[in-house]
Amino acid sequence: MSIYLDNNATTRVDSEVLQAMLPFFADQFGNPSSMHDIGAAAGAAMKTARQQLQALIGAKFDHEIIFTSGGTESNNTAILSALDVMPERSEIVTSAVEHPAVLTLCGHLEKTRGIKVHRIPVDQHGRLDLDAYRAALTHRVAIVSIMWANNETGTIFPVARLSEMAKNVGAIFHTDAVPAIGKLPVDLKSTAIDMLSLSGHKFHGPKGVGALYIKSGVPFHALIMGGHQQRNRRAGTENTPGIVGLGKAAELALWRMDEEITWVKSLRDRLEEGLLKRIPKTFVTGDPLARLPNTTNVVFEGIGSEAVQFLLNRHGIACASGSACSSGSSRQSHVLEAMNPDAAALGAVRFSFSHFSREEDVDQVLEVIPGIVMKLRGSFPFSAGGERRRIDNSAAAAR
Ligand SMILES: Cc1ncc(COP(=O)(O)O)c(C=O)c1O
Ligand code: FES
Fold first, then answer.
1. What residue range is the signal peptide (predicted)?
2. Is residue 219 helix, strand or coil?
3. Is 72 in the pocket of ligand 1 (CB under 6 A)?
4. Which partner from 60, 282, 342, 359 sits 20 to 30 angstroms from 274, CA to CA?
5. Domains in the chain, start-ordered, CATH in brackets?
6. Whose CA is nearest to atom 15 of ligand 1?
7. What CA–CA distance (Å, rounded) separates 381 from 279?
8. Closest-approaching ligand to the CA atom of 76
């Protein structure tokens, strides 16, 4: 695959991250809980990784971070913990556009434990309905779980403000920050956020490793029970190479943040402008004012997004239609459905950038996509002015 524009599904492991991990598969193989030097070296490396994450998310203490197997486990842990530590409360507030790692669990809790789940709706730009949010917040709510930014559209939610509101009713506030980490500055010290989930593979770290931030003083109950690892908060021998890689990826993300944000935004904007100029009846979903700098989610009216993705793939261009875990199933995007049921029937094509993305990638997409859309719409494309014109590379694009 020569052009990879699906960085919200997963990212390439940075070579510096890989180099940092390798020794922990070989010479430094010790168990971090062991008392001898080989174990202590692994324990020290884990402490460094915790500090690297602490710096990236602006946590007050490094012990506020536990390592998990990724975003899914972190989300499950946060929600189940809140219900355990506040048994007198039996409601959850979340949004209609969360990742399945939150929504599937909430649906399960509703069915099996009689938990009441408020799924706050969004408007056509994916913005949260603040009145509905306010109305759902009562002293019956154990936890609010609202994502920092949406993985499909990039829409950013005002989590600092939402966490203040949740605090007024004594609910724990959790945010799934998986798509936001490395693409937005995060400083937890200055917010009322109690818990935050992140995942290594979304910012050039390895897969299968992530973290949950638990603010000091917030009551917590472990999900995975067993040994005494991680101060009894997550049992099981730690994935030291993965954790070291996660820490290194956090360090690189912090170093590169400003430069990366500017770079991915310039590529994203170049792509959007080019698509909107070249292809009529095309629109971008998500909040135009508050969106992740690396993400665009585009609807080509009249054609299904999976067909566009399929033909782009034939041209060596990787993008997404819907999110990686629901693509392949014929289910519509629940995110688009919540925003715009008309668009949901067709779906949207998501392009997501990273600092490895290149200008040539954008130019290549802009070269082939008008022909693909034209082929699928079964007619010649219209220019922005509505005038019919033939695109020279249409034959090549249709292959
Ligand atoms: C918003 C969001 N939350 C959670 C996850 C799950 O993370 P992981 O793949 O590390 O379990 C993802 C990954 O797609 C995501 O986009
Ligand atoms: S893999 Fe990203 S949404 Fe599921």
1. none
2. coil
3. yes
4. 342
5. 15-253 (3.40.640.10), 257-398 (3.90.1150.10)
6. 178
7. 7
8. 1
